[in-house]
Design goal:
The chain is 8% helix and 31% strand. By secondary structure, the chain is mainly β. It is globular, with a radius of gyration of 26 Å. It binds copper (II) ion. Copper (II) ion binds next to loops. InterPro entries: Cu-oxidase-like_N, Cu-oxidase_C, Cu-oxidase_fam, Cu_oxidase_Cu_BS, Cupredoxin, TAT_signal.
Length: 461
């Protein structure tokens, strides 16, 4: 995976030209860059305008701009896209400029930005700048503050960025469908003074979710809660790249939530602080140490930590959200020896799959035939075998010897001697147990409801 990171200039970013707009309009419109690779594209230093430290969008990229008479001009194209969710599965989504989520928009406090939005979807759209303080008429709410952007048309939004912060953009037209289809992106306003809120590495991603039937590629847009693909920037583990840092560096993660439920994001290893929300930066005196922070729907949380060497899991703590394409109809089979039954059913239904009788870990290493275009429930392999995770999971990889600005996957962590859990092979004393039969010898006792016996006694006559 390490060789898949490159500057987006070198990655062959293509330009769509302006086929959808008139000849006269084309002269005025900035070209729309497009990117279809799901690999993290580390942005170059800003070529013009106020300096800032670029955000690294996890499995994403940042939108180039052009300066015109002191205004930063961006061009978003809303359009159908094909997104690889993880190797082995692609989804037909809607997004911006070739990808879902769309590219990150980055600008600086005090900048005047002009954002052209061209609609190449089969229906109307609009863009709301979630959390950005704009004049009401630039807020992008279809019907309320503007007419819809009709199919094939281009709208222009223009405003001055009032204060630094971490924001998102998404449609405010047929929202349920358009967000379920993957239309969203990050909008970062860097501080005017680049020494403010300075960190060594600044990562960002959006929590999103899809309901895509195994074997198909288009999300079911009416699903409200029962999604089967829990993703970061429309990628599921092991498709999510690691977050890389050097020991001792100050690292920030900016995490937004545009799913239909909350996600308690938990990081192993270094403790962190919540340093910002979409409302702004948290004053130092109001920050507290954390290992898990809940990110509500429509919220943004910035967390910061001092990197400690190791491979540290970072994941949503709702354990169903670290699973891929999970069938919730699967019955719990722990303790049930169903090998005979499963064999018989498999002869009738070749794709039949049951939960393991010893839990589900074995499924992580099973290579059973899957329908085309879906992901195994839990997957991803580490240096010690299957990780047994999918969905909203990645690894913070911190190394002592990493060069500044190197974002490539450094491979597995080499644990210093004496710091690795291992099997105990010497003699074990018999564990002392409380009196009573072992669990395996216990018979199941069914206790009837208290009132039942008395009632039965009456009728027994
Ligand atoms: Cu979650």
């Amino acid at each position: 995976m390490s060789n898949r990171r490159h500057f987006f200039r070198a990655a062959g970013a293509t330009f769509l030209g302006a086929a959808a707009v008139s000849r006269a309009g084309a002269a005025l419109l900035p070209e729309a860059a497009s990117q279809t690779s799901p690999a993290t594209q580390v942005p170059p230093s800003p070529p013009n305008g106020r300096p800032f430290q670029p955000l690294v969008t996890l499995n994403g990229w940042s939108l180039p701009w052009r300066m015109k008479d002191g205004v930063k001009e961006f061009h978003l194209v809303a359009e159908p896209v094909v997104r690889e969710i993880a190797p082995g599965m692609t989804a037909r989504l809607w997004g911006y400029n070739g990808s879902s989520p769309g590219p990150t928009i980055e600008a600086v406090e005090g900048d005047r930005v002009r954002i052209f939005v061209t609609n190449r979807l089969p229906e109307v759209t609009s863009v709301h700048w979630h959390g950005v303080q704009v004049p009401s008429g630039m807020d992008g709410v279809t019907g309320l503050t503007q007419p819809p952007i009709e199919v094939g048309k281009t709208f222009m939004y223009e405003f001055v960025l009032q204060r630094p912060g971490t924001h998102m953009y998404h449609p405010h037209a047929d929202e349920m469908v358009q967000m379920a289809m993957g239309m969203m992106g990050l909008f970062i306003i860097h501080p005017r003074d680049p020494r403010q809120h300075r960190v060594d590495r600044d990562y960002g991603f959006i929590l999103n979710a899809y309901d895509i039937d195994p074997g198909s590629a288009t999300p079911r847009v009416n699903t409200m809660l029962d999604f089967n693909l829990w993703t970061w920037n429309s990628r599921a583990f092991p498709g999510i790249e690691p977050l890389v840092a050097r020991t001792g560096e100050r690292v920030r993660l900016r995490i937004g939530n545009l799913t239909m439920t909350n996600h308690p994001i938990h990081m192993h290893g270094p403790h962190f602080e919540v340093t910002g929300t979409d409302g702004g930066w948290v004053p130092r005196s109001a920050r507290w140490p954390e290992v898990t922070t809940d990110i509500g729907v429509g919220q943004m949380r910035c967390i910061e930590f001092d990197a400690l060497a190791g491979d540290w899991a970072i994941h949503c703590h709702k354990s169903h959200h670290t699973m891929n394409a999970m069938g919730h109809g699967v019955p719990t089979m722990i303790g049930v020896d169903h090998r005979d039954v499963a064999d018989k059913i498999t002869r009738l239904i070749p794709d039949y799959m049951v939960m393991g009788d010893r839990g589900m870990h074995d499924m992580a290493q099973m290579h059973m035939p899957l329908p085309d275009n879906t992901l195994p429930m839990m997957t991803g392999t580490g240096p010690f075998g299957p990780v047994g995770m999918g969905g909203m999971f990645s690894v913070v990889k911190v190394r002592d010897d990493l060069a500044r600005g190197d974002y490539r996957d450094p491979g597995a962590y080499r644990h210093p001697a004496g710091t690795l859990a291992s099997e105990y092979t010497a003699e074990l004393p018999e564990p002392a147990r409380a009196a009573g039969p072992a669990a395996s010898e216990q018979t199941l006792k069914v206790r009837k409801p208290a009132g039942h016996e008395g009632h039965e006694g009456h009728e027994g006559h």
